[in-house]
Amino acid sequence: MDETGMAYEHRPLKVVTLKGQKKIKCRTSGNKTQTTVVACINAVGQAIPPYVIYNAKTLNPRWMENGVAGARYARSENGWIDTELFKIWLKYHFLQYAVSNRPLLLILDGHKTHYNLEVCEYAKEQGVIMFCLPPHSTHVSQPLDTCVFKPLKSEWNKVAHNFQAKNPGARISKYNFPSLLKEAWEKAMISSNICVGFRNSGIYPFDPDKIRPTIENMESETDTDHDDSNDEIGGRNMELHEFDPTLR
After folding, report:
1. Reduced to 3 states, what is the DSSP secondary structure of residue 129?
2. Minimal CA–CA distance to 204: which of 44, 20, 74?
């Protein structure tokens, strides 16, 4: 599970222009807003519908039309996930789509919004093991970061670019965001991308050597900047072990 921000003002694609021209223009939305999208995938290549969080004081029903089937929508003051929204996601969205087998391993980063006593106790009651990835390692250890969010952002740029080209003067907003996200989501959140993410991160099939060189380089750089043999905080002195579902 992880979150990413989808910017309404997309990154323009390649354009055709005269050779030597220095100032090249491309139409974009001009809307600096971004919306948080929470994604969750599994090792067999499946993704549950997104959890969309708008930056708003109230949630307009029209912001939920024509989106990904099964998607859930929420709002927060800054458009980011918080502890309460994560609790709602876990109880009413994640577990709705989760398999019935237990224990169930939920891999996520160490952001403070993911952890409080109530959430951890509820997860334990439901047979969900919340596994926090090592600090500063999610760029190689989080499957969504390694091979899924990049294709999603790429498809989003294409969808946004085509929308602006076909609708001169129109802006991407909360009203058309669900339908545009749906188009990008269905092209990017495919089994092949998801499975490669788990494989490249060494999670499934389990292979610590996939990320060991990167982790060791991180530890070496940390040792150079801060030499303290007793410091085990911040991801140093980490060992990679195979997950044992019998340990709860």
Report:
1. strand
2. 44
How many domains are contained in the chain? 1
Q: Do the domain assignments include residue 231?
A: no
Interval 32-53: pLDDT, tens: 789 999 999 999 999 999 999 9
Dist CA 49 CA 86 (whole Å): 15
| b/e map 22-34, b = 16+ CB within 10 Å | eeeeeebbeeebe
CA 73 → CA 24, 56, 101, 108, 174, distances in Å?
37, 12, 27, 20, 11
CB 218, CB 240: distance < 8 Å:
no
Q: Kindly report, residue by residue over 172-189, the tens digit of the pLDDT.
A: 999 999 999 999 999 999
Does residue 145 belong to any structural domain of this protein? Answer: yes
- Please state the pTM of the whole predicted model: 0.82
